Write the structure tokens for this entry.
Amino acid sequence: MSMVLIVGARSDIAKAVARKYAGEGYDLYLAARQAESLQELAADIEIRSQRKVAFGELDILDFESHQKFYESLPEKPIGVISAVGYLGSQEEAQTSFDEAQKITNTNYLGITSLFDTIANDFESRGSGFMVGISSVAGDRGRKSNYCYGAAKAAFSVYLSGLRNRLNDTNVQVLTVKPGFVATSMTEGMDLPAKLTAQPEQVADDIFHAQQKGKNVIYSKWIWRWIMLIIKHIPEWRFKGMSL
Amino acid sequence: MNLSGWGNYPQIDSESIGLDKKQALLDWIDDKDEVIAFGNGRSYGDSALSQHVVLCRPHNYFLGFDEVSGLLHVQAGVLLSEILEVFVKRGWFLEVTPGTRLITVGGAIASDVHGKNHHQAGCFSNSVKSFQLMLPDGKIVNCSQSENHELFNATCGGMGLTGIILDAEISLTKINSAFIDQQTIKTANLRETFEAFEKYQDVTYSVAWMDCLARGDNLGRGLLMVGEFCDDGNLYYQVKRKPGVPFSFPGFALNSWSIRAFNALYYGRASASRQKVDIESFFYPLDAIADWNRIYGRKGFVQYQFVLPRASSFEGLREILKVISDEGKGSFLAVLKLCGAENENLLSFPLEGYSLALDFKIEPGVFDLINLLDQRVLHHGGRIYLAKDARVSQAVFEKGYASVDQFRDIRQHYKMNHKFNSLQSRRVGI
């Protein structure tokens, strides 16, 4: 059977993505820290979709373990979706390098370490899809979250390069840039309803974009245009703004 | 966060926490006395509005399903639509479903919702085998007909005022088709509408749309739609994404002329017919139009639903329809339903007789009109449905519900009244 690997599986977007893919007939392997807490989600998806859902431990910050993790999977996935993300605290990151490092290591180095391993395997097999959930925060640095934004920007660039590298193989690389999403990560923030996606909408967008072989998507779609404008504000003007 | 029910009236600035937070939730809830569970925000008025709300949607795991008996165990934040997406294609359907599938299981229990088969299947609680309820002190109890029976009867229809429903076991019913054999009967006046209901009461599903602005000889004319599930083995079920209402209509868009015109056109174009329709168009026609509540504009609307005992239904409805059509403040959606017998739950809405649901745009004079209707409803021995309500007075509410004191006693006994309160519960004094 065709199995899809979902990493960062405890996040709300991952949960919605997992339900979507299983609902469309894929088996799943869910990976995250404290994997035992994935038990309920795995059972939920099995009841909903009657697909096979396995789960296991993955610490994205433990770079050394990634190769072994991938080799130990019961079968090789036909695709991988990363919902790994750590927003952290910008304020803390400015004063504590530990926090800055954790943000960077989670959102960039950790996930790319795992993706390198998987990309090599997909490349040699000549098939597969890799979906990286990045963020609109990586499109331009803002004072409220530029440490997170910088790591996401690096991840977006990484995915772009990977896509370029794998262009001649049959491996698809999809960059997903969600705007505001109503998840536990954004809980308590006052988000404008019209610009805020539900995790299920993001999951639908990801599934359809992946199936159609797309390269980069924004979710909701309107963020492509919002970010286009934001990216084009001249720096002399932008530096004085509070966005 | 700014919260409102489906009617967009009233609105309140609330603090919230997700029901999936477990320990954090217990700590959060501990020192608060104005807390209410909030599901998918589809009760129309202020039943789920309070200073502090517990958001139930994140609590949405399927916990178990018995393929033989059809018993489904889910967390309370699961939507009925999620259940349908999973189970219709496997040959199962909800025993009872209201006219929207976009409500949570917890909300369905708390409002003890009813549907087009109420005259045969009763309320949603009939399909509930058991549920877990979190009491004010954080204790979790199992409730069913045999266990904590009193709490079961208070919670089903109890508008979230007995605690927080955590998960529930509900029975699904077998179907052999995702399609309904629907028959439409066109009636020329109220007498004919009633006769049609009586004539078709052996059919499982029935509901009527009424033109509440029709006057004189046409008063009470409408379209009765009745149906049974087909038996063709075709279980294809796919919810189509359709365009919704993109923005709130300006306040003047709906007025007595535009509604009168729409109703006349809708009635005029319909004809007696028989056709095979899918689940969406038979049970959930409005769900196909996302955000349809926006047609009533930014100020929102109130829905008014009442039920009259069978014996006084005809006279009562005739009076009420006359008041409405004289005022010219009607709605697209006047939905008439012949309900079956009352159940044992303390605050469940339906009783044997006719129930009518109407929408009214918020505009000057509308509350005076509804107050007039209240008096007619009470005069004929009827009651108001709390799940739709945003404005009923304590006096009017109480007269309709004989068991309200028993409900208050239970609330007091478990100290629920010191913890779980909504704008509505404060207003109607429960």
Notes: The mean pLDDT of chain A is 95.
